[in-house]
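Appendix B. Extra example for self-study. Work through it before the problem class; the solution is given directly after the inputs so you can check yourself.
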Amino acid sequence: MSAVLVPLALLMGLVTYPARALPLLVPGMQRLPATVQLYLRLVGPAVLAALAAVNVMIVLDAERHSSFHVGAEWLAVGLCVGVVAWRKNLFLGLLAAVTLLAVARAAGLAALP
Amino acid sequence: MDSLGILVSASGFGFVYGLTAQAAGFSPLEAGAMSVVVFAGASQFAAVGYVLGGFSWVGVIVLTAFLNARHLLYGAALAPYLTDRPRWLRAVMAHVLTDEAFAISIAHFRRIGRADLTGYWIAAIGSTFIPWNLATIVGATLGGSIPDPSRFGLDVIFPAAMGGLAVGLVTGRRELVAAIVGAVVGVSVSLAWDPAAGVIAGGLIGPLVGIATPPGARDTAPEAEILFGRRPTDDAARDPEAGIP
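Solution. Structure tokens for the complete assembly:
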């Protein structure tokens, strides 16, 4: 069983832990400047939205050249986003997205990646 | 009841993470190590995408640090309730501080006006850490027995999860603007240069535009109160009986 990525997991843990622990362990850390607090609050939605958009809208060819992709995956991700906004339930959103794409592919309406 | 809902969600999502990681070539050991050591769903899903996208480890680590920097806010919000607890205990509590554990704990602490360690451990370990890790292993192990996962639409789980998680963090106009700008910048830079650079650029520029955006009508409370709600000291100042169980 491969363990090549275990050191990567350890390093990811190493950069995650301080963000969790510092405010609990260092007095005064809870009084971050308001602008820093706001920036940190906005990083999450920005990074996650960028990841979702890049993953579904960009395809790479064998030489890693990017091109714009339009497909049924857009609808599936949009459905998930809509369900989460409506029902506040990510698992339900994922279920809806996967079902939509599976049905579309089974019906021949969407290409396999 | 809140913890029960989180338990079901963590189990389902952990299973999906295990499946996704397995499909990306992670072994159960690698997927499991990430769940135990990192224990942060969004950045774990993101890491699967980074590895698939051929990012360097340095890039993965920098993006993980960025994505998980929001935990600073959670620790800062809980800190006033925990100042009289031993340092070693706070250090242990920190490792299992997730979005879910924070959401349940801060609401509970505010409701009773003090820290409740049993409640915290139930939320952080019983409802999240244990089910998340068990479900990861099950997903990563069973994933290998599913032939051609894309036939079943499983390849959309990663972008859908990222989009859904982003929506969960959008609580006002500024977050919405940061998310939209992050996505647009991410795609633009990806087309012009490289997807890895696109994600980093979107994650850095989106929040800057969000900060420059005027807050919406429902975002006018002071930042600290939006983020943290009232501190126990505020409660005590307003209500002399606050904090008494």
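Self-check: DSSP finds 13 helices and no strands in chain B. If your reasoning did not lead you there, revisit section 3.
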